[in-house]
Amino acid sequence: MNNFKKIAQLPLFKDLTTNQLEILLTNSHYLIKKYRKGASIAMRGDHISHLIYLLSGSLQSTMNDINGNVKQIERFNHFEIIAPAFLFGEQSVFPVNLIAVENSELLMIPKDQFLLMMQQDQAILMAFLKLISNKTQLLTKKIWFSFSKRTIREKIMSYFMQNSINDTVKLKMNLTQLAQLFDITRPSLSRELRKMIKEGIIKQIDSKNYQIIDILEG
Predict the structure, then answer these.
(1) Which of 31, 59, 196, 218 could tie 108 with a disulfide, CB 3.0–4.6 Å?
(2) How far apart are CA 100 and CA 147, in angstroms?
(3) Structural domains counted in the chain
(4) What CATH number is given to the structural domain containing 18?
(5) Which residues form the domain of 30?
(6) 36 and 125 within one domain
(7) Can you say how many angstroms the Cα of residue 54 is from the centroid of all Cα atoms in its chain?
């Protein structure tokens, strides 16, 4: 798949015609940067000068605590936008370190050019605002799960109850994203799900669907 076809699939641009997108990109002075596995893309505190979209590969964001220990924060997969809420803030800097987990390609559009694109096309503006709103809502849920539910099982059951229809839950995200929402590791989440299935609390229908069997036991 060539770069133009990849860019056309990004949520910000999916409502544009091919001709509209070609004109906007031609005038935007965009870059496609390639990073090898293990490469450092940005460090916490670095200035954000471009809108950044991950076209292929995957990235890991990390933070170092006062003792120098590295904490993994979030995993980014292809077609995800990087730190959009920090692009136009008063402190327009990366909040985390970014490392390429595998060979990756990034679309980079200068901030001033992206602002012009939003002024020229309302569909891009609305898509960007929706994207930021969705990420803010997800962060709010993550904070709520972290503070209101102590155990992994409590977090799982709370999420399942909120998203169930007739005791059936269809996951709206993959396990990696769900683990990030709960602020836990994916192995910990998978381990607890297996325990709950074994104990008869939930039943796995397929990779995305679960059935709640026994609420009281959960």
Answers:
(1) 31
(2) 31
(3) 2
(4) 2.60.120.10
(5) 3-142
(6) yes
(7) 11
Could you say which DSSP state residue 76 is in? E
Q: Are residues 32 and 74 in the same domain?
A: yes
Tell whether 23 and 124 lie within a shared domain: yes
Q: What is the dihedral of CA 158, 161, 164, 168, to 10 degrees?
A: 100
Residue type, 147: F
Closest listed residue to residue 82, CA positions, set 55, 119, 117: 55
Please give the average per-residue pLDDT across 64-91, as a whole number.
82
The whole-angstrom separation of Cα 199 and Cα 29 is 57
Whole-model pTM: value is 0.67
Residue 218 lies in a domain: no
Confidence class for position 218, pLDDT limits 50, 70, 90:
very low
Q: How far apart are CA 186 and CA 178, in angstroms?
A: 8
